[in-house]
Amino acid sequence: MADETQKTECKDGFFKCLLNPPKCSMLRMIVVGTIGGIIIWGGLNTGMEWTNRSEFCMSCHEMTIPFEELKKTVHYKNRSGTTVQCADCHVASSKTPTDYMFKSFQKLMAARDVIGHIKGTLDTPEKYEAHRLAMAERVWERMKERDSKECRNCHDFKTMDPEKQKDRSVVKHEGAVQDGKTCIDCHKGIAHKPVHHLLEKEQGKAPAVPESAPPSQAQPAPAAAPKADATPAAAPGATAAPAAQPPAAAAQPAKAAPKAEAASAATPAASAITALDWSKIPTRQIKVFYPGQAGLEWVMNKADHSSAADIIEKKRACAKCHEGDANEVGAAIVAGKPVGVSKTVMEPNPPAGKVGFIPVTFQTTHDDSKIYFRFEWVPPKNSDKKMDPKHEIKLTMMFDGGGTVEGSELNGCWATCHVDLRSMKEAKDDKKTKYIVGADLASGKFMDLIQFRSGKGEKPLDGWVDSQRHMDGGKSHLRVEGKKEGNKWIVTFERALAGGGKGDHVITADKVYNFGFALHEDFTNARYHYVSLGYQFGLDKPNPGVKNYIDVQKQ
After folding, report:
1. Where in the chain is the domain with CATH 2.60.40.1190?
2. What is the Cα–Cα distance from 495 to 373, expressed in whole angstroms?
3. What's the CA gap between 385 and 524, in Å, rounded?
4. Is residue 287 a contact partner of residue 535, using CB atoms and an 8 Å limit?
5. Residues in the chain with pLDDT < 70?
6. What is the pTM of this model?
7. Would you say 133 and 141 are in contact if contact means Cβ atoms under 8 Å apart?
8. CATH classification number, 227-554, choose in 1.20.1440.120, 2.40.30.90, 2.60.40.1120, 2.60.40.1190
């Protein structure tokens, strides 16, 4: 009866029922609780959003240090007009409501920053720098635990367009998916001053190459080399005697087209290189770039080079990541800008006006007995300074015996270039030339070397690199022709497949050979040259799955 009375009286009006506790207490509690919850939640959310503003973060003056760093990055200002604020990375959760508790927890943990502000923990730039790595490590750890959700609010592997990414970005993202990596594994230091290299240095250097190096040995003089150029060119980081100052070269190619001229006949006219129709032979565009003092040890050290782990652990060739942006790498190095994870300056004496890279058109073919390599490029405009006045250009190519030099399938002739060579950053012996760690001529663990020099009457150099560099000795029936046609150079090598002498590799159809080449232009010398990444070639052996591979087709 009482229930029916309550139902009847409740029909008299909602608010009248609400004000009659004895009869409508349950309904009143539900409604009041709901309204109160909305008010409380709304107040908390409003307070959270208000304190998430960067202006609020700046109320603690020490936070102006990281904010000013953020303002200089693409995450703050870019062509699309999007921007990231402090809370987007340090408070934000994913876009799902279930993560609201995490967001609230982050705000609670922020009380630690208030306490630090009151105590003056970071009240000077010096104190901030002292604590920077520890603070960064906490953020990295939290983001890794959450699979970088803060990043994934805007970025997603599934919606990335590989066609609009650089080669190394595509490779890195593909590898991240395969290896189960998350964004923060690779993208530390993108919004603030990078300090992750300090963490990696603490973890130690990767054992990229054996620590022991061969004893320093004097370079024997080439049989036909003139005294003025006792130290010929070689690939990455060539180590001719250092000059006091690098040459100055104009940044733009020469506009005037001089008359065609023969630069250097490597052999008498009767033994000229076999005539070939190069228009029928495939071309490969290769960017040779300025490497500075980037020796093998730097390239293969995880604390210096972000891709070292991919090279060492995943066996990914350098060209797989850098073929597309070798020009950017060279431009940064030649300008004396810091590069790599460790932000190392690879060129301590930036040569004035020297360009960062030169595009080279590379072609190769073979017949039953010989292999041919052709290089064509437009050089930058020559300057007045000449380190090597006899030779306007020198072009050097090195290749192994088909996987005989460890690591050459990944980095080509970089296996011969080390940071302790003369004119390099850790040089201690001005006679130390290029070498291969653990070289063995008898077993084929050496690099075959061929070189063209543009000086009048110069013969081609046929040598090799084992525990040191040898610039003569081969008998591979090598011929070289080089000429300047208008504003471009063309250099062609003709080399017997069978080799024929000390330091010559035999080239056969059942092997894949690793190679690289270097270009000394504008009368330059020593390490002020341009180098290629590591490439491979095989005779009539298509290998479409390998990016740095070149199929040498029979003519």
Report:
1. 227-554
2. 9
3. 9
4. no
5. 1-24, 93-98, 200-272, 382, 474-476
6. 0.68
7. no
8. 2.60.40.1190
